[in-house]
Design goal:
Length: 263
Amino acid sequence: MDDANHIKRGHATHAWTDDEFSEYIHRVRAELIQQRDNFLFWDSVKNSAVLSGGGEIWYGEPSYYVKLIGGSGTLASDILLVKSDLPRYNCDLEILGNDVRETVQKAMAGEEGVDPDLEDCSEEVAKLPLVAFNAENHFIKRPTYKQEIRYLLQCQGSPFIVQLLKFKQSLIMAVLFNTANERIKNIKLWMLDIIDGVAYLSYVFALGALFWECCFYNHPHNRHVLLDNPPPPPFRDIFVACTRERLEDRPTHLQLRAMYEAI
């Protein structure tokens, strides 16, 4: 049975078990990692940015720039979805659909000071407890926004968000995530705790992305891979709702909580 039919069957006719959920996650994650390993430049990506209809990537040393814009089935889209390789390396490229041309280097995202939340997060990270890191138990996420750290700090003491971490004095935070039995139940409670810990839920898309990272063990991804590989039921509809293109189409704080409660 293919994934589409399996997901449809699971969503419509029966509640997925932890074994079904975990099997799907482990298999898809392994496939995504294998895809990524086929293309060397992904291992040297330094930064990326989302554009309307595509994205930008900076990779390598010295840094090279690639702009990718294109609809489904184009070379640009396939590169962003980790289905195709760059047509050539060690040069700055603009790929519009299937059209490839060399371009000029662009300053890396964040270097121009467009978003103040991309500044040094060390003050917020310094508030996190320093503990030993265990790759078997910890989910790692590099902080992008100061506010996301502040939100997570509000959740300290939760029985489901066990601990926030500062690892090796670098700007990395992690959440101890229970991957044992009752995984669906644990994810539900974990996300409810996040929602309750956030007084004003302004980053619904970010919560969808955070949830995806928890399901797939923080598999390195970009926004396009994330949207093209939604988690399975019973969380699929929640993820799709959180990552809708238009802000006004995404659920409110109360709607999102009700969706998790209904699982």
